[in-house]
Batch of 2 targets.
Target 1
Amino acid sequence: MSGNQTFTIIKPVAVKNNYIGPILKMINEAGYTIKALKITHLTKNKAMEFYNVHAGKPFFEDLTSFMSSGHIVAAILEKENAVDDFRKLIGATDPAKAEEGTIRKIYAESMSHNAVHGSDSDENAVIESDFFFSKMERY
Ligand code: ADP
Ligand code: MG
């Protein structure tokens, strides 16, 4: 059982395709309260910092270029068992392997353009939330 908060990003291609509303609706309908929300963008350096754990992997360059290629939506989400349930709601990293009805199955275009990010642990949810939001920007 994970803690009660997780962190998400709606990635550039999903923002460009006008999927902010539909994705937030799915998140709300899954029982999450949005505790912080902003449209912003990452510089290449900031994207490299955010995805530091993947530095050196073959997809790192494409991932960080893509994540800094347009506006994103960052959000902190609250609900019991937030991290684990959100990973189920978004589905597998590769949309071809994501279950029917998951956010990635519906809105992702490919493995790299997979619509949303979701924290993989309580610890990373805190680190990622603090990366984007000050105390004044959340409740
Ligand atoms: P997840 O987002 O499901 O936690 P990872 O943390 O493993 O997945 O990877 C971070 C992001 O990097 C993925 O969401 C995806 O956009 C991209 N990515 C991961 N693996 C690949 C890959 N093999 N090819 C292209 N992009 C990838
Ligand atoms: Mg991950």
Target 2
Amino acid sequence: MDCIFCKIAAGEIPAKKIFEDNEMLVFHDIEPKAPVHFLVIPKRHISSMMECTAEDSELLGRLLFRAQETAWELGCGDNGARFVINCKSDGGQTVEHLHIHALGGRKLEWPPG
Ligand code: 5GP
Ligand code: ZN
């Protein structure tokens, strides 16, 4: 499958990895939009959160919790961070493999454009 995040998960494309286990990978975004900007992905290809099923709900919880833990580890715990999941065209998703963005290290605007 021609999916860039599957290739990163398989080690075929390099990434600045932060954490990895049997089911997920955490790595720095290649074009950071904040001083801290990393992505949390499942290793299994799921095209977006809109395609998750009830069986994926525990995986989603673990991905989200790992995002929170990593944000603490990277110094964003006290001031906070933003966790974003862009979905499909209206959500602004550009890579069709489920990923959680974590952004921190500066004050973020709300609402997004
Ligand atoms: P989306 O717009 O789909 O929510 O976010 C995709 C994100 O993946 C973007 O922030 C983009 O910078 C990041 N990205 C795209 N290609 C690569 C890559 O090859 N390596 C890394 N580390 N990040 C990537
Ligand atoms: Zn994929």
